[in-house]
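Per reviewer request, we include the raw input and output of the structure prediction for the construct analysed in the revised manuscript.
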Amino acid sequence: MGRGSRREMLEKLHVDFVVEVKPDYIGTKLEPLTDVFGCMFSNVDYGSGAYEECVYFPLAEFTSVEEIERSYVWPNPDWWDYKTIAKKLSGNEMYPIQGGGSEPFLIYKNLRGQEQAFMDLIENPEIVHYCLDRLFDLAYENTRRIYEQIPGKVTFSYVAEDMGGQTDLMFSPRHIQEYLLPGMKRMIDLVHESGAFVFHHNDGNCRRIIPDMIEAGIDLLNPIQWRSQGMEREGLKRDFGGRIILHGAMDNQYTLPFGTVDEVRQEVLDNLRILGDGGGYILAPCHNIQPLTPPENVVATYETCYEHGWM
């Protein structure tokens, strides 16, 4: 397309350029591919793209809260410098600003390991509550400090958690209500008190928990993976379209990576017709666009939306 930067490409495709503001890390030096929680990552090549996957889970061997308290150092908000945030808005005033938010169970899975994290919900509830409380507290204070530096400037905060699989929730509504909703509600209230919107990301078939998330106060649901069982677009629009913004729905299990240009264009039109009826819809891919996706399908997505999305 003859564009030299990511921003130029997005502007050419008429895509809203979201500017995410974060504080600068000033804590002790981290080892390569290691995050502030002590989780270590490795680049894993899946043949169609490489991803950083967690390979070391620092809390995996602990069997009690007391052991964790004795041996593990939790990140402190003072490890970041928030005074640099205001400078990052310069030249970006016309774009949506994303700042703060939370996704603690994702971090918890990295701390304990995927399988152990889910087993903990039943076998080690005290560890789950303890760790999620610490993670929510860190996210809350991080978000509060960001708002403090740029009052009224943040457009939305990302209050997320992957709860759904291809056919249903990955864990029960009861566990979501016990472990996640209280902390998420606290985060959502902070976001709204600061004049920002709550962008809620929740993969797969999360339909059974959507009413609870709306009750908690989310403003937008992403990514609308409509090929997941139970996430049919017509039903989502009918039941929730008047209460939240629906965001995403361009399928990347088949349409974007494997569909024809005509199929891509038709899906854009279908999404605008179904989810955009009466407003309240933002078209976007329902996950990162994968490396094997033909460029012409990407271009067709945004050109078709730009041409027809104003109806």
